[in-house]
Amino acid sequence: MTRREKPADHGRRDRGHRRELERSKRRWDFWSSHWGLIERDTVEIRRETVEQLGVEPGDTVLDLGCGPGVNLAMLREAVGPGGQVIGLDLSRKMLDRARTRLEERGWQNVSLVQADATAPHVQADQLDGVLATTAVSATPDVRSTVRNVSEALCPGGRFALYDIRLVPAGPGTVLNPVVRRFYRLFGNWNDEESVLDELHAAFDRTELVRSFALGTNYIAVAENRREDPGTG
Predict the structure, then answer these.
(1) Residue pLDDT, tens place only, 38-47
(2) To 10 degrees, the CA torsion angle through 103, 109, 113, 117?
(3) Does 2 fall in a domain?
(4) 87: which strand partners?
(5) What is the domain count for the chain?
(6) What is each CA distance from 1 to 8, 11, 138, 148, 183, in whole angstroms?
(7) CATH number, domain containing residue 142
(8) How big is the CA angle at 154 (ends 102 and 28), to the nearest 5 degrees?
């Protein structure tokens, strides 16, 4: 809390944060029953994002905002049977569907956690990679979410994202009021924070890999430097 911040202001922000979390839960609980079409339409872009992680067999990865588990098979393939995959989501109904997917396939090295991504959820330096597909921009505190990921990653670990934003430039910006409304209605999108700006602030290196659909969809990867073996 800053000097100028009053306890009442802090309390209002906390209440606002809780309201946004509850709104997100309700929104994603609803969409848990309607995710099949989205899963099929985004499979290649999600696969490309997983490849940006650069993880190896035996690594531990987190799927942040895992939803019904659409990325878990690809992540499990990347880390192999000796690796670990963790799926984290706020929505219980999304996780119920992910759990059904796990049970049907008999995966023993995949675990699921119901948690708020804006709060610390993994110990520092525990993860080799973190994946997020259209998840970070839907959190009510993008800055905290990104910083939590940065702290949870091992030095050199990567954070790979497929996410959405408004049209960044050009004539297409005239569509932004409609785009903003759609994002907000669909996924309780956070229109007050920039995911890319927070990545640049929290990580040593951030790269916008590519963007498409007038720049509203993009893949980005961020990482911190590896530890110097000569220090410590």
Answers:
(1) 667 789 999 9
(2) -130
(3) no
(4) 63, 112
(5) 1
(6) 11, 11, 24, 19, 31
(7) 3.40.50.150
(8) 40
